[in-house]
Automatic annotation (TrEMBL), chain A:
SUPFAM superfamilies: Acyl-CoA dehydrogenase C-terminal domain-like (SSF47203), Acyl-CoA dehydrogenase NM domain-like (SSF56645). Its cofactor is FAD. Belongs to the acyl-CoA dehydrogenase family. Keywords: FAD, Flavoprotein, Oxidoreductase. This is Alkylation response protein AidB-like acyl-CoA dehydrogenase. Signal peptide: none annotated. PANTHER family: ACYL-COA DEHYDROGENASE (PTHR43884), ACYL-COA DEHYDROGENASE FADE28 (PTHR43884:SF20). Residues 6-118 form the Acyl-CoA dehydrogenase/oxidase N-terminal domain. Residues 216-356 form the Acyl-CoA dehydrogenase/oxidase C-terminal domain.
Automatic annotation (TrEMBL), chain B:
Residues 134-228 form the Acyl-CoA oxidase/dehydrogenase middle domain. The keyword Flavoprotein applies. Residues 8-130 form the Acyl-CoA dehydrogenase/oxidase N-terminal domain. It comes from Caulobacter ginsengisoli. Residues 240-392 form the Acyl-CoA dehydrogenase/oxidase C-terminal domain. Belongs to the acyl-CoA dehydrogenase family. The keyword Magnesium does not apply. SUPFAM superfamilies: Acyl-CoA dehydrogenase C-terminal domain-like (SSF47203), Acyl-CoA dehydrogenase NM domain-like (SSF56645). The lineage of its organism: Bacteria, Pseudomonadati, Pseudomonadota, Alphaproteobacteria, Caulobacterales. This is Alkylation response protein AidB-like acyl-CoA dehydrogenase. Keywords: FAD, Flavoprotein, Oxidoreductase.
Length: 371, 412
């Protein structure tokens, strides 16, 4: 058996790490965090040119035609560098949904542009506080016009089109592609806990909408897409956890108090050890998710939820304890700790909160055990 | 990334499976599969006899101590073959419990430090399960701080005379031999005055007293030494080299990986699906689900961390201190699970009578055994220190007794 990434995949990871160290340093993250730009356009273009965006998009649609494992190692590096780009929205969700459910013309129209970065997609499901469910969605399509309001929409300001969950004429849930630059769409940026990944509030008023996938299949398409995105996002969370742990460790070695490095106190050592344990469990669970995703295993539902819950927990722990180890300096805008804390807590929500995924995990384990 | 065997691994697995199918004590399988915490209860069979019989059968067919050289009674198998064997042996592996310390720690220590003649004399009977070995390390004054041990060895002619006390010696009452670390020079700093021996546990002056534990069982013992004589020929390593020798033993403990520490999660999940709280199955309760999900992630994380360690072994890498997380996570998880399982039972959770208790009293047994898991073989705190120092590279604790002659170290 070999439960590791291959040498080629490790090389891809190294390439991605070097590229992102050069092109997504924290100063670039801060530029988006503090600026008007909804994402780092130069980095986005570069990721397209490097082939990272299209890694798992078939060659016939302009991608590299590699597999999910390659996309996983890229995701880990994006997470590590907090890359301020709409990767999860455009690639893990929009491109994946179009690959899975798009018609021939839809794939031809969108996948090559998504692979190059020329077009950006996003997913619009939430309409307010509370979990997104089949019942919570009120947006409606009549004929081929969509009306309703979605908030928050991750990368909604950056995107060219949205895949919107809405009630189809007969009240069943379907997905629709809507041109965000077209008629009947009004969007505005909303303030969030992590402005390095912008979000939008979008109002649709009889906006032209084209159905993606079969009528009434919206929720099951969405559930499957969220599972695949959960595995990829888990790699971002694992990358972020490792980096936050390294920052805390490095600071503990260098900061002197009471005449010795604070990293020599057991209170600090044990906190860092607990971060390492959480990050290690999360990494192993993410590998389980990657294996299930790349092999199309029936266990994907369990594996994705496991990877998700474990990675969310690890990144939140590493993010908050990184600040704690840094003490007062960790609470300054000048130190990078808050960038990780923000991202950890953003990623914990974007595909649905922790309790939602805990529910999914337990339900799926129950179903698996009963089978 | 895959769980597939290489052709060589597949051939080894097929051979192992065929031999186990043909030779394992199938009549014990159900009892072994149900065995939880504490001693083995095998209907109508003495567990020690069952363990010795299975070990001898394996030894005769060349399936004992797979990782040992053939000359000493092993098979010379690769680490990955050892893992495959463990997977195939499954519940029958519970019959190896009494041999683990000998095969995993004492044997490798002898291999590294004993004479060739001694290795040929003592290792094959150990592999065959005829001789059981124990490890006499911990003391009342030397647990986590093992090098603080006080058992004295004084040279007298060609012998050493031993006086002192060991504690937490697993299975000492069943053992023929033990490896023993002693203090031979109290005038030098604590790590430098230690010397290792092996001895016959039937030697005059050795007294074994079982310790009655929290859970009422007695897996651990105190061992008292009163003027016990050990021939100098049974010294392992040089006089004063005992600490280095003990590290061989402790490093080998770490090589026993991939077997997976139990967390109790599967049993807990099953219990929560069946247990009716009065408002439906426990698994439907939000608070229960959140805990189950967390434990599921810990159990799964340990399982796949093990798979990664096996992959590293298979590539020829040596397992490192990062494998300390197994027991750290499993011990605490088991204790949390046991506590919460009893909580779900309400007042009835206190009932541990096996005839009456819910889930065959499994969780009550887990509750009363789990504190030991968090202490034995490295406390949670020592394991966190190991991760912090050897994995993350943080400074070692300040040791005020490091350069002080042992006899000058203050005692309570």
């Amino acid at each position: 058996m070999n439960f590791e990434f291959s040498d080629e995949q490790q090389q891809l990871r190294d390439t991605a790490r070097r590229y992102l160290a050069d092109h997504s340093p924290s100063v670039a993250v801060r530029a988006v965090l503090e600026g008007e730009q909804p994402y780092d356009t130069a980095l986005w273009k570069g990721l397209g040119e490097m082939g990272f965006l299209g890694a798992a998009i078939p060659e016939e649609f302009g991608g590299l035609g590699l597999g999910y494992l390659e996309l996983c190692v890229i995701a880990e590096e994006l997470g590590r560098s907090l890359a301020p780009v709409p990767m999860s929205s455009s690639i893990y969700l929009a491109a994946e949904l179009i690959k899975a459910a798009g018609s021939g013309p839809q794939k031809t129209a969108w996948l090559p542009k998504l692979a190059s970065g020329e077009a950006i997609g996003c997913l619009a499901t939430s309409e307010g506080p509370g979990r997104v469910s089949e019942k919570s969605i009120q947006a409606r399509v009549t004929g081929d016009r969509l009306s309703g309001a979605k908030v928050p929409v991750l990368d909604g300001m950056a995107a060219d089109f949205a895949i919107v969950a809405a009630r189809d004429g007969d009240r069943s849930l379907s997905l629709f592609i809507v041109d965000l630059n077209g008629p009947g769409v009004a969007r505005q940026a909303v303030g969030t806990i992590d402005p390095a990944r912008g979000q939008a509030s979008i109002a649709f008023d009889n906006a032209p909408a084209e159905r993606l996938g079969a009528a009434g299949e919206g929720f099951s398409l969405l559930t499957e897409a969220l599972d695949r995105a959960a595995v990829l996002t888990a790699f971002e969370q694992v990358g972020g956890s490792d980096k936050a742990l390294e920052m805390a460790r490095d600071y503990a070695l260098q900061r002197i108090a009471f005449g010795r490095p604070i990293g020599s106190f057991q209170a600090i050592k044990h906190m860092l050890a607990d971060m390492y344990v959480a990050a290690t469990l999360a990494r192993s669970n993410a590998y389980y998710g990657a294996w299930a995703l790349s092999t199309g295993a029936a266990e994907l539902g369990v594996a994705a939820a496991t990877a998700r819950v474990s990675a969310t927990k690890a990144f939140q722990l590493c993010g908050k304890n990184n600040i704690q180890v840094h003490g007062g300096m960790g609470f300054t805008w000048a130190f990078d700790c808050h960038l990780f804390y923000r991202r950890a807590n953003l990623l914990a929500l974007t595909l649905g909160g922790q309790s939602e995924w805990e529910d999914k995990l337990v339900e799926r384990l129950r179903r698996r055990n009963a089978a | 990334m895959n769980f597939d065997d290489t052709p060589q691994e597949a051939a080894f697995r097929a051979e192992a499976r065929a031999w186990i199918d043909a030779n394992a004590p199938h009549e014990l399988l159900a009892d072994l599969e149900n065995a939880g915490f504490g001693g083995l209860n095998l209907s109508g069979v003495d567990p020690m006899q069952a363990m010795k019989a299975w070990q001898k059968k394996k030894f005769d067919a060349g399936w004992a101590c797979l990782h040992w050289p053939k000359d000493y009674g092993g098979r010379g198998a690769t680490p990955i073959e050892r893992v495959i064997w463990g997977q195939e042996e499954g519940a029958y592996g519970k019959l190896s419990g009494t041999f683990i310390i000998g095969h995993g720690m004492c044997g490798p220590t002898l291999m590294a430090w004993a004479t060739e003649e001694q290795k040929r004399q003592y290792l094959p009977p150990m592999a065959a399960g005829e001789d059981i070995w124990c490890q006499l390390f911990s003391e009342p004054a030397g647990g986590s701080d093992l090098a603080g041990l006080r058992t004295r060895a004084v040279k007298d002619g060609d012998d050493w005379v031993i006086n002192g006390q060991k504690i937490w010696t697993s299975g000492a009452q069943h053992c023929q031999y033990g490896i023993l670390i002693t203090r031979t020079d109290p005038t030098v700093p604590k790590h430098k005055g230690l010397t290792m021996f092996f001895l016959d546990m039937k030697s005059p002056g050795v007294e074994i007293r079982p310790i009655k534990q929290v859970n009422g069982q007695s897996g651990f013992n105190e061992v008292y030494f009163t003027d016990v004589r050990i021939p100098d020929a049974q010294r392992l390593g040089a006089v004063g080299q005992g600490w280095t020798v003990s590290l061989t033993t402790l490093m080998n403990e770490r090589l026993t990986i991939g077997s997976g520490m139990p967390t109790g999660f599967e049993e807990m999940f099953d219990f929560c699906c069946r247990m009716d709280t009065g408002e439906g199955p426990a698994v439907d309760d939000k608070a229960v689900r959140s805990k189950l999900a967390d434990w599921a992630c810990r159990a799964s994380g340990l399982k796949y961390t093990g798979m990664r360690a096996i992959s590293a072994l298979s590539r020829g890498e040596t397992p490192g201190p990062e494998n300390s997380i197994g027991k750290l996570v499993a011990g605490a998880t088991m204790q949390d699970i046991a506590t919460f399982a009893l909580d779900l039972m309400g007042q009835y959770g206190a009932v541990s009578d096996p005839e009456m208790a819910a889930a065959q009293s499994r969780f009550q047994a887990m509750l009363l055994r789990s504190p030991a898991t968090r202490v034995e073989g490295g406390t949670d705190e020592i394991l966190r220190n190991i991760i912090a120092e050897r994995v993350l590279g943080l400074p070692a604790d300040i040791r005020v007794d490091k350069d002080v002659p042992f006899e000058k170290i203050p005692t309570a």
